[in-house]
Amino acid sequence: MKDKSWRQEYLGMKVHSQKTRKLLENGPKSLSQSWYLQSMYNDWKSKKGYKDPDTENKGQCQSSFKEFESIINQSIKNQKED
User: Fold this and answer.
1) Which residues have a Cβ under 8 Å from the Cβ of 23 and sit 6 or more positions away?
2) What torsion, rounded to 10 degrees, do the Cα atoms 56, 61, 66, 70 define?
3) Which of 19, 31, 50, 52 could crosslink 45 through cysteines, CB 3.0-4.6 Å?
4) pTM
5) What is the pLDDT of residues 29-78, one digit of tens each?
6) DSSP H helical ranges for the chain
7) Using CA atoms, how far apart are residues 1 and 7, in angstroms rounded to an integer?
8) Which sequence spans correspond to the domains of the chain?
C-alpha cells in the first residue's frame, strides 16, 4: 500500500496549495517534508477507510510489580539463610 499511486489519488481528492502539490509530485527533500508527507498519507488512509492493524499488548508480556517484588524478597530471604 506504500506505493506512489496514493499521491496521485490524494491530489485529486481536494484542493492543495502549490507547495503541497509540489511535495506530492516530487517527494520530500527534508525531514520536515517527510513528516508532512506522512501526515498527508495518514489523511488519505483515513479518507479511504484503511485501518492499521491493532498492535496493542494483549497481556502476553505483562507482569505485575507484586510478582517482581515477591521474587526479589524471596531471593533476599534465600541469601540471608545461606
Assistant:
1) 33, 36, 37, 40
2) -170
3) 50
4) 0.60
5) 999 999 999 999 999 999 999 887 777 666 666 667 888 888 889 988 88
6) 5-13, 18-26, 31-48, 65-81
7) 11
8) 1-49
